[in-house]
Amino acid sequence: MSKSFSAIGAAAQDDEIDREAFTPGIEPQATWCPGCGDFGVLKALKGAMPEVGRTPDETLLVTGIGCSGKLSSYFESYGFHSIHGRSLPVARAAKLANPGLEVIAAGGDGDGYGIGGNHFMHTARENHDMTYIVFNNEIFGLTKGQTSPTSPKGHESKTQPHGSAKDPIRPLSMALSSGASYIARTAAVNPRQATEILTEAMEHDGFAHIDFLTQCPTWNKDAKQYVPYTDVQQSDDYDFDVHDRREAAEMMHETEDKLYEGEVLTGRFYVDEDRHSYGEEKRSTGEMPEQPLAERYFDDDYDWERSYDLLDAHK
Amino acid sequence: MTEHELIWRIAGGSGDGIDSTSQNFTKALMRTGLDVFTHRHYPSRIRGGHTYVEVRAADHAVKSRGDGYDFLLALGDSFARNPQASGEAYYGNEEVKPLSENLDELREGGVIVYDEGLLDTDEVENFDERVEENDWHVYPLDLRGLAREHGREIMRNTAGVAATAALIGMSTEIFEELMSDSMSGEMLDTNVEVLEEAYREVSEMDFSHDLEVPTGSHDEEQVLLNGSHAVAYGALDEGCRFISGYPMTPWTDVFTIMTQHLPAVGGISEQVEDEIAAASLAIGASHAGVKAMSGSSGGGFALMSEPLGLAEMTETPLVLVEAMRAGPSTGMPTKPEQADLEHILYTSQGDSNRVVFAPSTVREAYEQSREAFRVAYDYQIPTVIVIDQKLSGELASVPASHFDREPNADLGSVLTEDEIQEAAHHASGTFNRFQHDPENGVSPRTIPGQKDGRFLASGNEHTPQGHIEEDPDNRVAQVDRRSRKLEAIRDDLDGQDHSNQTYYGPEDAEHGIMVWGSQQGSVEEAVDRLNDQGHSVKALGVSDLMPYPKKEVTEFLESVDECLVVEMNVTAQFRGLTQKELGRFGETMSSLLKYNGNPFEPAEIVEGFEIQVNGGDEPPTAQTRIEPAAGD
């Protein structure tokens, strides 16, 4: 292991990692509103890290813009607060550059399903080994309450005064059809399930998508719609094989239909443990080095190839 | 036409192998000891349409395509006829274009070889009269028939090359060598047979021309490569091991060359969903400790405007290539222009900084690609390498020793774990990634995974630890520090042994020509001709566009009476930049502009210069434009 990444992996067996390690020493004053669901995501994430056995030094959290984007300010790790919708391309390259990192990307429903929708589709398709948390509160929060891609049809806002004529995005189905290998929905109002799911997602070898229902008490008073919820794994009414694509798709349709009718199903909807992550695929075809590429720059003995040795073809 | 140089043009349809055939021919000329330079002209379509490649070879250094040419090999467009319509032309008269479209620039006494299997001179207007007027020597050959007879129809290119060789006095040996480098088995055997048979047949003919291949010799081994190769090789030698991109002409060349080599040297190449993603991936890889690049052409670079600003604000080293083509919007995908300059300099919101290098030759493309990485990683700032469709695709012979340099994989201003412990930290123990006080503006950085180097990189204005902050004092300190980098980079570039600006011509010349990017070679040839004609002219080729080399340009402009600024756009963008940066010289500079999709030829610059000196605002040709100096 290179001297510059001595932290990576070393702490995996360390019992000392606790949730407090992920609280910044200089805690910036949280700008989230009282009662905001985002606090629940932060709490669950901090709770999951010790379970996964990762230290702050070996974790990279990449966020987008908006209330959700501020997660990286309140979570102690290496962080990259990028731009609206672009957390995924930044995160997935960091993972390719250094597969030893625990890479988490996070953003809101506008960020993830709107402006960053194309990146979502392609990152899922490539099945990068990372965790993607989408804070879904069905509203644009930080820009003060506009309709978002997950707002229900008919939702009235200053930008849709006649009520939205659009059907909402179906994020779980979208993730499935795009190729994500772990898909779950959880809610800020259910911290225990959220922590469990986040832990599983990080341990999953592939792209784990979590549609994380968060209430927005300021701009979306209908936040109460997230209660009551049903944990599909805990309920006998929803017996299905989480590894079966078709059954998973059916369950996703069910929850995506019911979400706007006041009943919320949460839990794991699809898990594919057989599919190789993108990094593994690339390594297996020789398209990517076995050793983390980032380490090489700290290896004083590495012999860097020169273009001069490629010139035969040009003579 | 002189005994010292030969300009050969091969013309046909896209997809007919014009490009590969001309490359081999160019290499053959280089191997005989000549300096070579190519110019590609092609339409934005996959098959068919008029395309040509011009190869200039001389016993002395060649810097441009020259003016006109000596030898036309007209192969015909095999895709122009609709196979369903029994010989009826499907795309109008495109099959005659390889012959008709090229005659205007063929020099007096020139040679025409055309494939009589596909082309008919009866279809070309006034052909016989023009031949007589210009003393052209015409050799109709059934190249297609010959190729069919001895191999396959597609090998008519080989037959054409053999005919050329026989007509200008080259042996077939060198072509056979090149063929056996790139093919084998039956493919090689039949090609060699076509080559030898065509050579034999043509050798037996009576020649009326006196055109011959010049003889030359190189002091040292040469290699044949274009600006895209040079940018890619510069990147590889600086330890770039990550590239992400989306295909777009002409940037695709750099992207595919890197992709071809990266896995073999343990690097990563990613073709991604769009250009926003491409630049964002390069930022992610760079943040994680790998030297990374991305790039595009005009429209794709427009999408990178947002990540470009992100790299600047988060101080993530990032190298982007902008291979310009004619715009706006989709413009002319396969034609060169230098009209993206202002877009590259000023794109992205806020008082954002980036460093811009515009190499002018294959040699400079290699050097400045390396420089772009060094500056990006030393100063944690985005750098842009600007090339255009001309420089990206034109092949030139360069001494191999030019590339015999030591690699540099230094990540620049990155701390080791030991240094992190010693570095500035906040009272809470958090690493001060963006500390306010360093002299050259560069706060040392850490890489995710390093012990105790944690920080937040944010596109929002931030504290030294990276947290979002709108405090006015912090804002001013951070903006001032980031801005200081450009001054430090200017000092750094001025302090290097080698200037990125190129001086050409007698130091005490009265008149100046300024140029940037790929047009420099044509300007240098024009300067030589003008001085031969009794003028007193020198040139300055400017490669550093941001930070601008104020001192060097000021000295140059002060040393001349007047200066012609040559560039391929209609709004005189480089001249405008010079006036903005220096705040004077409005009455010294006039412009010669061209934006028809073709680069400048030396003769146009000679004529433009004469108009400037003698007064007047009539352009030298209908395809160029003169923009007089202020007050003229």
Question: What does the model show?
Answer:
Chain A has helices spanning 38-52, 71-74, 87-97, 109-115, 117-126, 171-178, 191-203, 245-258, 278-284, 293-296; strands at 59-63, 78-81, 102-108, 130-136, 182-187, 207-213, 229-231, 264-271. By secondary structure, chain A is α/β, with parallel strands linked by helices. In chain A, strands 2-1-3-4-6-5-8-7 form an 8-stranded mixed beta sheet, sandwiched between helices. In chain A, helix 7 (191-203) links the parallel strand 5 and strand 6. Chain B starts with a strand and ends in a 5-residue tail after the last strand. Chain B is an alpha/beta fold and 632 residues long. In chain B, the strands form 4 sheets. In chain B, strands 9-8-10-11-13-12-19 form a 7-stranded mixed beta sheet, with helices on both faces. Strand 2 (78-81) of chain A pairs parallel with strand 15 of chain B.
Summarize the structure.
The complex is a heterodimer of chains A (315) and B (632). With 315 residues, chain A is an alpha/beta fold.
How would you state the average pLDDT of chain A, rounded?
Answer: 92
Query: Unreliable runs of chain B, pLDDT <50, ≥5 residues?
Result: none
Strand order in space, largest sheet of chain B? 9-8-10-11-13-12-19
SSE class of chain A = alpha/beta
Number of strands of chain B: 22
Q: Could you list the spans of chain A in which at least 5 consecutive residues all have pLDDT below 50? A: none
Number of helices of chain B: 21
Helix content of chain B: 25-40%
Give the overall silhouette of chain B. Answer: globular
Largest interface: A-B, 65 and 78 residues
Instruction: Tell the overall outline of chain A.
Output: globular
From the N-terminal CA to the C-terminal CA of chain B, the straight-line distance is 38 Å
| First-last Cα distance of chain A | 40 Å
Order of helices and strands of chain A: HEHEHEHHEHEHEEHEHH
What quaternary form is this? heterodimer
How many β-strand runs of chain A?
Answer: 8
